[in-house]
Design a protein that fits this description.
8 helices, 2 domains, binds magnesium ion, single chain, binds adenosine-5'-diphosphate, 34% helix, Rossmann fold
């Protein structure tokens, strides 16, 4: 992860009046409308919203996988033109090459970037250790559990020291206990390094546990309906306690978010 904490608070990504429409056989689908969002260095943004509201579309625009139909998406003042390793992406399904062992999966991006061999080894060892997979470095992905595969996917992104990490429901397919462990791991890594994270989830408690800011989106066409500053949950990490979860501040925000999400018209996905 990014070890440089000097620029905390400076803008990393700016989205200005973003609109995105998909053209499909069934016609035009407006997925995002008038999205304005500034993401600063060190923020942990969590995105919540009803299914089909455009969360993944928004992530893909920031990642550079999709170009907005109109509006401007920038990172560090340069227009985002395509995917690159400055923005590492973790999806719900682990994205590992099945024919490579875990070490080679983690070091893949560094090899592509032609870093010196000893540097590749040093970084790969470091991040295998960070995610607790040192012992399993010679295993193939099929030999690992879902949670371990997801940790390998995370290491694969972290090893590149990206400016930002984007995660699309990364723990959605994991069992409750593994999910909690993964949340703790991501929180610790973020806490240690203050990287910038953008994480989509459908779990309001996950968003409250991890995020410094929560963005709630409306059903399609996706707009940002409300933002919540949830930095108070820092205490959860700092004190390593779950008490924040039972404070009135937490309960109040939780209820308001659930209300916002549940009182939106249900949209069938096409
Ligand atoms: N490639 C595509 N072509 C047409 N419609 C799409 C495409 N991808 C997504 N959509 C539609 O755009 C809307 C937003 O999708 P998505 O961003 O995946 O939502 P979310 O991640 O919030 O569930 C949905 O209605 C979805 O069906
Ligand atoms: Mg999605």
């Amino acid at each position: 992860m990014c070890e440089d904490n000097k620029n905390i608070g400076l803008p990393v990504v700016t989205l200005k009046d973003i609109n995105l429409s998909y053209e499909s056989e069934k016609g035009t689908v407006t997925a995002l409308e008038n999205i304005d969002l500034n993401i600063s260095k060190g923020e942990f943004i969590c995105v919540l919203g009803p299914s089909g509201c455009g969360k993944s579309t928004l992530l893909k625009i920031i990642a550079g996988f999709l170009k907005p139909t109109s509006g401007v998406a920038k990172m560090d003042d340069a227009i985002i033109e395509g995917a690159d390793w400055h923005r590492g992406v973790v999806f719900q399904a682990p994205t590992l090459y099945p024919w490579l062992n875990i070490r080679d999966n983690v070091s893949f991006g560094l090899k592509m970037r032609k870093l010196p061999k000893d540097e590749i080894k040093k970084l790969t060892d470091k991040y295998l250790e960070e995610v607790g997979l040192t012992e399993f470095h010679k295993h193939k992905p099929y030999e690992l559990s879902g949670g371990m595969k997801q940790r390998a996917s995370l290491a694969r992104v972290l090893v590149n020291n990206p400016k930002m990490i984007l995660m699309d429901e990364p723990f959605g397919a994991l069992d409750a206990l593994t999910r909690q462990n993964m949340q703790a791991l991501v929180r610790t890594l973020w806490w240690k390094t203050k990287n910038t994270i953008f994480l989509i989830t459908h779990d309001v408690d996950e968003a409250l546990a991890l995020g410094t800011r929560i963005i709630v989106m409306s059903s399609r066409p996706g707009k940002i309906v409300k933002e919540f500053n949830t930095e108070f949950t820092y205490r959860m990490s700092a004190e390593n306690s779950d008490n924040t979860r039972y404070t009135s501040e937490y309960m109040k925000i939780r209820e308001e978010i659930l209300d916002l999400i549940n009182h939106q018209p249900y949209i069938f996905k096409i």
